[in-house]
Amino acid sequence: MDSPKVQLYLDIAAKGLGIIGVALMVFTRGGWFYVGVAAVVLGVLFMGGSLVASRKLRQRRWDGTRRT
Fold first, then answer.
1. 33 vs 68, which has greater pLDDT?
2. What residues contact residue 63 under an 8 Å CB cut-off, 6+ apart?
3. Which among 55, 48, 47, 63 is positioned nearest to 14, based on CA atoms?
4. Where does the chain cross the membrane (predicted)?
5. Is residue 3 scored above 90 in pLDDT?
């Protein structure tokens, strides 16, 4: 997770899952509501992964060396 692309992809996936999950919860009925809840929960987990990735990126300088 030392690449900025990983953080970007996790962030995009998290937001996409959140939007899809909310849309499923609002516009569908029956079992699809629970699929929407699961999508939102998965999006929250991906957002946590994105935050962990960004924390690891901040430990490096712009030239790739570690901060002491």
1. 33
2. none
3. 47
4. 33-53
5. no
